[in-house]
Amino acid sequence: MNMMDMFGKMKEVQSRMKDAQQNLNAITETGDAGAGMVKVTVNGLKNVLSIDIDPDLIKPADREMLQDLIVAATNKAISAVEVKAREHLRQATDGLLPNIPGMNLDGLL
């Protein structure tokens, strides 16, 4: 592979990465806590899209537990969507670059 081919590939990788990153908002994942009593949905940009709370949990005495469940569900959803987003970006650039030892594109996410 000569340098001109490599530069051409890099421009294509940049273009595909830009397109893939723009589509991350379409990737969603839902995390739950408390046996599904609290559900949080996030997108590939790690934005919280919705929070669903079982009506039985909304009691003043349960406020602290509810806050902990929301945090747990949010973290679970973000962890799950990171995996999907990484795979989405990997597929967008699959086959464009040679397998170069030590070259890790995970930092682009």
TrEMBL record:
Q: What is the superkingdom listed in this entry's lineage?
A: Bacteria
Gene3D superfamilies on file: Nucleoid-associated protein YbaB-like domain (3.30.1310.10)
Chief subcellular site? cytoplasm
Q: Which residues form a coiled coil?
A: 3-30
Q: Where are the transmembrane segments?
A: none
Record localization: Cytoplasm, Nucleoid
Picking any one GO molecular function of the record gives: DNA binding
Q: Looking at the UniProt record for this protein, which Gene Ontology cellular component terms does it annotate, in alphabetical order? A: bacterial nucleoid; cytosol
Q: Which UniProt keywords apply?
A: Coiled coil, Cytoplasm, DNA-binding
InterPro entries for this protein: YbaB-like_sf, YbaB/EbfC
UniProt entry tagged with the keyword DNA-binding: yes
Query: What role does this protein play?
Result: Binds to DNA and alters its conformation. May be involved in regulation of gene expression, nucleoid organization and DNA protection.
Family, according to the entry, reads as follows: Belongs to the YbaB/EbfC family.
* Subunit text: Homodimer.
Protein's name in the database: Nucleoid-associated protein HH216_06225
Q: Which organism is it from?
A: Spirosoma rhododendri
